[in-house]
Design goal:
7-stranded antiparallel sheet, disordered N terminus, alpha+beta
Length: 367
C-alpha cells in the first residue's frame, strides 16, 4: 500500500467513527477534516483569517500558522463566519506550539456571542469585556457575560473557572484538545485525559467559534491543524460534506493482520515526512524574512558608509590644506633669517655709500 493511500485512510478514520456514532460534522464551523486545510491555499471556506497588519497567518497544505517562528510580536486569528445553531456539540481541536519552554506567547479558543468584531486578534490578557467562553492562558477556562473588563483586571488568571497543568510546547507533534457541551455537562479533554469540567455550565447556541494567537518579542509559533465541530447524537444537525469512502478490505471482510502491522510503520513514516516537509516550508519562509531584513540592513549600512566616506574625504582635504599652509609658514620662518641678513647688508651698504659721497663732496669743494 502506498504512503499517500495510507495517509488518506488514516485521515478518514476519526470522521468515519463520528458518523458511526450518530454524530455529524457541522461544516460551517469546521476546517482541516480532509487531507488539505484549504482548497486553494488562499482561504478556508466559512472562515475569516486576519493578522496584525504586519503579517497574516500562513496557509500550508495541512495547517495554518497563526504566528511564525520569526519574527516575534505577531498576532493572528481565524474566525467562523457562521454562528453555531446546535446547542449540544463537540469540538476536536489540534494545534502545535514551538518556541521557548516558558515563552511569552499565548493561544486562545473563543466561543463568543458577537464573534470576530468583538475580539479580532487580542489575547485573553488584552481583551476588554466579552460575552462567551474563552480557553487560554495555558489550559484555563474563562466565562464572561460582558460585565468584566479583562484588560483592566489586575489578575486575569484568577478569573478562570477551571484549569489543568499541561505542557504543550515543543512536543514534536500536535496536541489534541476536545471541548464537549452536552445537555447536562461541559468538559475539556486534553490528549485523551480529562482537564476540567462542570455540570453547571450550559453555553447558548448562536455563538461564533474563533482561534487567536499572539507571540512575544521572543517568537512563539502557533500552528493549527484541525478544528472539527460535530453534533451530539440525536440533535438536529446539518448534513455533512461526504468524503470519499475508505478503501474496501480484502474479500471475506477480513483484514490481514500482517498487512496491518506492515502499514503501521509506513503510516508513521508518512506522518513524520509530512511534518518535516511542513516545518521546512515554515523555516524557509522565516529564512526569507531574515534575508529581506539583512538586505535592508545592508542597504542602510552602505548608505551610512557612503555618508561617512564623504565626511572623511572632506576632512582629509581640510587636513591637506592645513598641511600646505603649515609648510608655507615653515618656509617663511626659514627665510626670515636670510631676510634679516640682507636687511643688515643693505643698511651697511647704505651707510658706506653715504660716507663715500660725503667725502667725495668735501674734496671737491677744496679743489
Amino acid at each position: 500500500m502506498r504512503h499517500d493511500s495510507i495517509w488518506k485512510l488514516l485521515l478518514q478514520i476519526p470522521f468515519a467513527a463520528i458518523l458511526a456514532s450518530g454524530q455529524y460534522i457541522v461544516e460551517s464551523s469546521t476546517f482541516g477534516q480532509g487531507e488539505r486545510i484549504s482548497p486553494n491555499r488562499f482561504g478556508i471556506p466559512h472562515w475569516h483569517i486576519s493578522g496584525d497588519g504586519q503579517s497574516i497567518p500562513q496557509l500550508l497544505t495541512d495547517k495554518i500558522v497563526l504566528t511564525p517562528p520569526y519574527p516575534g510580536n505577531r498576532r493572528g486569528a481565524i474566525w467562523a463566519e457562521t454562528s453555531l445553531a446546535q446547542s449540544e456539540w463537540t469540538v476536536d481541536f489540534e494545534f502545535r506550539a514551538t518556541g521557548p519552554d516558558r515563552g511569552g506567547g499565548n493561544l486562545q479558543l473563543w466561543y463568543l456571542k458577537d464573534g470576530r468584531p468583538q475580539v479580532e486578534t487580542p489575547s485573553i490578557y488584552t481583551i476588554g469585556a466579552f460575552d462567551g467562553l474563552a480557553l487560554g492562558g495555558g489550559i484555563r477556562g474563562f466565562m464572561n457575560d460582558g460585565s468584566t473588563d479583562y484588560k483592566s483586571h489586575h489578575a486575569v488568571d484568577s478569573l478562570a473557572f477551571g484549569h489543568c497543568d499541561f505542557s504543550y510546547r515543543n512536543l514534536g507533534r500536535p496536541s489534541k484538545l476536545q471541548v464537549k457541551q452536552l445537555a447536562d455537562s461541559f468538559e475539556i479533554i486534553v490528549d485523551g485525559r480529562r482537564c476540567f469540567g462542570s455540570d453547571k455550565i450550559k453555553l447558548p447556541s448562536g455563538y461564533y467559534f474563533g482561534i487567536s494567537a499572539a507571540s512575544a518579542e521572543t517568537p512563539d509559533s502557533f500552528e493549527i491543524y484541525k478544528f472539527v465541530t460535530s453534533t451530539a447524537p440525536g440533535v438536529t444537525r446539518e448534513l455533512p460534506k461526504r468524503d470519499p469512502p475508505p478503501q474496501q478490505p480484502p474479500q471475506g471482510g477480513q483484514v490481514n493482520d500482517q498487512g496491518s502491522q506492515q502499514a503501521s510503520p509506513n503510516a508513521q513514516f508518512a506522518v513524520q515526512f509530512t511534518d518535516l516537509q511542513n516545518r521546512l516550508s515554515t523555516l524557509s519562509q522565516s529564512l526569507d524574512n531574515v534575508f529581506r531584513e539583512v538586505q535592508s540592513l545592508s542597504a542602510k549600512s552602505d548608505s551610512r558608509h557612503q555618508d561617512l566616506s564623504h565626511r572623511v574625504s572632506s576632512n582629509q582635504k581640510l587636513e591637506s590644506m592645513d598641511q600646505k599652509i603649515q609648510g608655507i609658514e615653515d618656509t617663511l620662518r626659514s627665510y626670515q633669517g636670510q631676510f634679516s641678513s640682507i636687511q643688515g647688508m643693505v643698511k651697511d651698504s647704505h651707510s658706506t655709500l653715504n660716507e663715500g659721497l660725503t667725502e667725495h663732496m668735501t674734496h671737491s669743494e677744496y679743489q
